[in-house]
Amino acid sequence: EQLGELEMIGFSGMIVGLVIALVMTSNIKLNPEKVIPLGVLIMVIACLLLTNSNAGSGISDLWLPLLLKGLAVGILNVTLTVHILRTFPKRHVVEGIAWFYLFRNLGSMLSISEFSRLMSIETANSVSVLAENLNTSLETFAVHQHALTQGMQQSGHGATAESSIALMVGQLKTQALSIA
């Protein structure tokens, strides 16, 4: 539920940024280069605000950074694209647009794949660190397993050692995802 609301906040910021960028680039009297540093500054502020978020962050923590991030993306996407393409001679504009979007999309795909690879590595490392505590020979593990089994029996669920271990594995996965 909150994810959709957060996406709408970011999308709203992007629409406002696009309007600003279109005004700056369509009016010959205005210089679109003046808005580029503002877009970069807004993006840096949004990234700094996002560094304070964690796995439990919600709308109250994330609305402003996502709004600013959307605003910056809207400003920079159109302004930089139009500004770069304006510098091309008229006979090279079509070819320039093709090369521009090819490399922009290629860069996006490469960055997404690298981010996914790094997240997989980080998640695997987190799981291995957290799994060190799931050693059945450790006393803390036995105490935790017994407490889970007792809690499940008191709530009326059929508790077995296997079901408590399955519950702990689920907790482990949640912890690993929030750490990564």
Question: Would you spell out the secondary-structure blueprint of this structure?
Answer:
Elements: H1 2-26, H2 36-50, H3 59-86, H4 93-131, H5 139-154, H6 161-179
Helix pairs in contact: 1-3, 2-3, 4-6, 5-6
What's the gist of this structure?
The protein is mainly alpha-helical and 180 residues long. 79% of the residues lie in helices and 0% in strands.
Highlighted features:
180 residues, elongated
What does this structure look like?
Helix 4 packs across helix 6 and helix 5 packs across helix 6. It contains six helices and no strands. The protein has 180 residues and is mainly α. Helices cover 79% and strands 0% of the residues. The model has no long low-confidence stretch (mean pLDDT 82). The longest helix is centred in the middle third of the chain and has 39 residues.
Helix-residue proportion: over 70%
The biggest sheet amounts to: none
The shape is elongated
Uncertain parts: none
What structural class should be given to the helix and strand makeup? mainly alpha
Global Rg? 25 Å
Q: Determine the mean pLDDT.
A: 82
Count of DSSP-assigned helices:
6
H/E series: HHHHHH
Straight-line distance between termini? 22 Å
Record field, number of beta strands? 0
Work out the strand percent: under 5%
